[in-house]
Amino acid sequence: GTNKSTFNYELKLKNRTPDAQTFALRSDAEPGWNVQFTVEGKDVTSVSVDPGGQKTIRVSINPPSRIEAGTYKIPVRAETKNLSAETTLEVVIRGTYGLKLTTPDEVLSTSITAGGERRVKLRVENTGSAPLAKIQLSADTPVGWDVKFDPDTIDTLAPNETKDVTATIHADKKAIAGDYVVTMNARTPEAEDSAAFRVTVKTSLLWGVVAVLIIGGVLAGLYALIQRYGRR
Question: How far apart are CA 19 and CA 17, in angstroms?
Fold first, then answer.
């Protein structure tokens, strides 16, 4: 499996003595490994076995998230004060999955005008040791906003390989001036990552010109009224 896999095993523990025994269950795995014992559907750290009887012990193992590909030995043991039984389980890691989404200059902010659009370049990187396929690009946006990606799917990405993607952000034409958050996402079944962009909406220059003209018109009207009626 991979670094995100759960490895499952089924063991039989036999009590070959004439007395009932309670066995403590333990693993000598390296730090970072998670080893869990389950008996009859319950997670346990010990198990009681009747004289001459046996119990089925299910073992689940999760490897550390940052583990290299390779073969690993996981010793597990059942023991009492005077008895012990040990076996070694094997885990084969064929690769690790990792995905990073950022920009070429790692700047996660931009500006836009209401109703306008802005193109930003994203960089998708495979940080694992196994290839990734069908990486889907998507975005979480404020209401009325939209983001389109070119391309919106990366077919394959080899380990340590990067791919640049263009995201075109369309702002809502009713957006008021201020800061907004647009979250870009890159996902596969095996790995995912997100990048939160701070997008500042600026007042359109056209509206600024319109506002100046309106104010000018109002002042001109007031001046004309003063000139006309001020002498009366």
Answer: 5
- The Cα–Cα gap between 82 and 23 comes to 10
- Other C-beta atoms within 10 Å of 54: how many? 12
Asked whether the beta carbons of 167 and 151 are under 8 A apart, the reply is no
Q: Give the tokens for residue 113.
A: 């005008």
Mean pLDDT score of the chain, rounded to an integer? 90
Token pair recorded at residue 228: 């006309």
Tens digit of each residue's pLDDT (9 = 90 or more) over 162-221: 999 999 999 999 999 999 999 999 999 889 999 999 999 987 555 555 556 777 777 777
Nearest to 97 by CA among 130, 75, 125: 130
Q: Taking the model in full, what pTM does it have?
A: 0.62
Residue 138, strand partner residues: 185
Reported in sequence order, the residue ranges of the chain that DSSP labels E, i.e. its strands, are 7-14, 21-27, 34-39, 42-44, 46-49, 54-62, 70-79, 84-93, 99-102, 109-113, 117-126, 132-140, 146-150, 153-157, 162-170, 178-187, 192-202
Nearest of 57, 58, 45, 55 to residue 20 by alpha carbon: 55
β-pairing, 192-202 vs 109-113, is parallel
* Amino acid 207: pLDDT: 53
| pLDDT < 70 regions, the chain | 204-212, 223-225, 228-232
Q: Pull the structure tokens for residue 213.
A: 């003209």
Amino acid sitting at position 160: N
As a whole number of angstroms, the distance between CA 49 and CA 123 comes to: 57
